[in-house]
Amino acid sequence: MPLSPDQQADIDAARAATQQTRRATAPGLEEELFTAHEVLDHGFVRVVDYMGDDSAIVQAARVSYGAGTRHVSNDEGLIRYLMRHWHSTPFEMCEIKLHVKLPVFVARQWIRHRTANVNEYSARYSILDREFYVPAPDALAAQSTTNNQGRGDVLQGEEAERVLRYLREDSTRAYDHYEEMLSQDGQQGLARELARMNLPANIYTQWYWKTDLHNLFHFLRLRADSHAQYEIRVYAELISDLVAKWVPLAHKAFEDYRLGGANLSAKGVECIRRMLKGEDVTQETSGMSKGEWREFVNILDGADV
């Protein structure tokens, strides 16, 4: 279980307390506050706080752009206009703070999104829990033969059992030695900031992660994508569901223009214009490389690029 009884009791107490406010609130997200949503085998995501809603985006846009957006007759239309034309600052008016428990190797990917404010559990001052991520059998895949960053077929039979055994045994052995280095009978013990270096990358850490909606959408566009690594994608997909309850109009526009949309180069647009005129366009006549052409054709066919 991701939460201990004491942690769950703290969450229940926080959820039971209510306060009056004049701030804008999002009813859907209010229902999710403090709740720990399980991810992977020991991880979770929970909303700790947020600021703003769909109306905050609209309010900021009308202040920023004034008469230039008065032709947009409703909030949803304005938000879609802002998303369609890649405006950013109105979406930055909304912020959210998450408490996330995740494997260290996932955290190292996640931290590349440098536009957030992060405070991570410190293994210099505290002792990490004996919790490791071990993939479920259906997530235990071989290296892709066509993509250096991707996965191939799922491992089967004895090979899968061997890999899972190594992961469990190595993680347990490393943690046993970590504990022994920290404190042994009659010995002073190694400093925590040094003993932690022996821990595996699949051990769990925790952090508070605060970001604005514009940068969160950028995170989700990359990490909720089907090409993202599974272990970070499941976190992104859960966060995306929470964002839909927070700013439903903005999230709907994001799904339409970012997650469900496609970016075309100038050459791609020109090829479509030629095709609409009845021209038989090929890779050789497109001006694109083979890789570009393959991705372009997949977009037209609706295939997974």
UniProtKB/TrEMBL annotation:
Oligomeric form and interacting partners: Homotetramer.
Biological process per Gene Ontology, one example term: dTTP biosynthetic process
Biological pathway: Pyrimidine metabolism; dTTP biosynthesis
Keywords assigned: FAD, Flavoprotein, Methyltransferase, NADP, Nucleotide biosynthesis, Transferase
Reactions the enzyme catalyzes: dUMP + (6R)-5,10-methylene-5,6,7,8-tetrahydrofolate + NADPH + H(+) = dTMP + (6S)-5,6,7,8-tetrahydrofolate + NADP(+)
Enzyme class: transferase
Cofactor descriptive note: Binds 4 FAD per tetramer. Each FAD binding site is formed by three monomers.
CDD domains in the cross-refs: ThyX
Gene3D superfamilies the record matches: 3.30.1360.170
Protein name (database record): Flavin-dependent thymidylate synthase
Protein family according to the UniProt entry: Belongs to the thymidylate synthase ThyX family.
GO molecular function annotation: flavin adenine dinucleotide binding; NADPH binding; thymidylate synthase (FAD) activity; thymidylate synthase activity
Cofactors required: FAD
Source organism superkingdom: Bacteria
Pfam families: Thy1 (PF02511)
Function comment: Catalyzes the reductive methylation of 2'-deoxyuridine-5'-monophosphate (dUMP) to 2'-deoxythymidine-5'-monophosphate (dTMP) while utilizing 5,10-methylenetetrahydrofolate (mTHF) as the methyl donor, and NADPH and FADH(2) as the reductant.
Active site residues according to the UniProt entry: R223
Residues that coordinate or bind dUMP: Q109, W110, I111, R112, E120, Y121, S122, A123, R124, R196, R223
InterPro entries referenced in this protein's UniProt entry, alphabetically: Thymidylate_synthase_ThyX (IPR003669), Thymidylate_synthase_ThyX_sf (IPR036098)
